[in-house]
């Protein structure tokens, strides 16, 4: 056997710093704004996040050290392997070389623990005793429950979007195994939840609603010992995920590849995409010829159809206004199986990268995604999460293009998570029960009409 399937790094080669894209963006980031339209200062975010994470959120430092206490936990699964998808390449008959970074090897099964461990660590350093959060597919809630267990001394409470809570009972069990508490959102525990339930008793829930509940639960704790934790979207989350791309660069260098031709990630709030692609965006900004593609569902077309605007991160408008691509904070998505891709907004850093022409975006229907997931499972062996199948579908499109063009391109994608907790989705697809759904332009326009009068970003 001469060919090398997996490229490993030694634990000592795990990156010691994260990469922050913010200082390298061609045009500056727009600041978060308060309800009065003025920029939100760090002190205004203090009831929601600990100050050490707020400092990272607004940092203009290009490189930020990863504390030893975080690195000691990350080595439970990091550095993650970079894998050459030979079997998939053969099935497609493509001259392209396809590599994927397998983030599914983490204890929670996705990239999410990269930031969960960091956030739990910084909160503990700051003296916080309890974290609240939301979760869509359950990946983030389980990642944070795992991280709180590893860090120790921090409780974790998760508001899980109702439709996923019903579809994915095993995720709740994982959270509880690690000591977290998981309830369906909207719930009767918060004012935001009660208001939504009064209006829409049968709502499937949404990430926007669950965020409102989790933020409310944090800021109304009279002891002051609770903070909120977000699994995507924010700058510090993108930062923590860049360990993925930084490792991938070292791994590609080991097989003589300086830069891939194409880098692909699926996009929900933007964090796994950013984590893999931002270190390559740095090279692109400095002249490298790399195509960077974000893949999203047609049913939640934040990058491909939504405008770049100021909008709230949640339904109850508790968060500041963020400059991002947004379908409108009232967006309630169709219950597609890629629960983690059903968020109305996109990370401000990813939205800015799109605005600045550093990346492209494609939309994919869930049938194409499940088809891609099945092909990947049969060839490479690992069953991908429904979210991850969007990146695989986009990769397959690029590999077929390389075949048509006769080009031996290197394609790198982020295998953001395994799908062993998502088999209900596969079962429905195999039973012919899943349908494609495209979010109508008229609905987007109706949502955005409610934002008239909001300030506009640059
Ligand atoms: C496996 C997996 N991939 C991707 C995502 C999308 O999130 P993000 O865009 O922040 O990476 C999620 C979110 O839950 C997920 O669980």
TrEMBL record:
<keyword id="KW-0456">Lyase</keyword>
<comment type="function">
    <text>The beta subunit is responsible for the synthesis of L-tryptophan from indole and L-serine.</text>
</comment>
<dbReference type="GO" id="GO:0004834">
    <property type="term" value="F:tryptophan synthase activity"/>
</dbReference>
<protein>
    <recommendedName>
        <fullName>Tryptophan synthase beta chain</fullName>
        <ecNumber>4.2.1.20</ecNumber>
    </recommendedName>
</protein>
<dbReference type="GO" id="GO:0030170">
    <property type="term" value="F:pyridoxal phosphate binding"/>
</dbReference>
<feature type="domain" description="Tryptophan synthase beta chain-like PALP">
    <location>
        <begin position="77"/>
        <end position="417"/>
    </location>
</feature>
<dbReference type="InterPro" id="IPR001926">
    <property type="entry name" value="TrpB-like_PALP"/>
</dbReference>
<keyword id="KW-0057">Aromatic amino acid biosynthesis</keyword>
<keyword id="KW-0028">Amino-acid biosynthesis</keyword>
<comment type="similarity">
    <text>Belongs to the TrpB family.</text>
</comment>
<comment type="pathway">
    <text>Amino-acid biosynthesis; L-tryptophan biosynthesis; L-tryptophan from chorismate: step 5/5.</text>
</comment>
<keyword id="KW-0663">Pyridoxal phosphate</keyword>
<dbReference type="InterPro" id="IPR036052">
    <property type="entry name" value="TrpB-like_PALP_sf"/>
</dbReference>
<keyword id="KW-0822">Tryptophan biosynthesis</keyword>
<dbReference type="GO" id="GO:0005737">
    <property type="term" value="C:cytoplasm"/>
</dbReference>
<feature type="modified residue" description="N6-(pyridoxal phosphate)lysine">
    <location>
        <position position="112"/>
    </location>
</feature>
<dbReference type="GO" id="GO:0052684">
    <property type="term" value="F:L-serine hydro-lyase (adding indole, L-tryptophan-forming) activity"/>
</dbReference>
<dbReference type="InterPro" id="IPR023026">
    <property type="entry name" value="Trp_synth_beta/beta-like"/>
</dbReference>
<dbReference type="Pfam" id="PF00291">
    <property type="entry name" value="PALP"/>
</dbReference>
<dbReference type="InterPro" id="IPR006653">
    <property type="entry name" value="Trp_synth_b_CS"/>
</dbReference>
<dbReference type="InterPro" id="IPR006316">
    <property type="entry name" value="Trp_synth_b-like"/>
</dbReference>
<comment type="subunit">
    <text>Tetramer of two alpha and two beta chains.</text>
</comment>
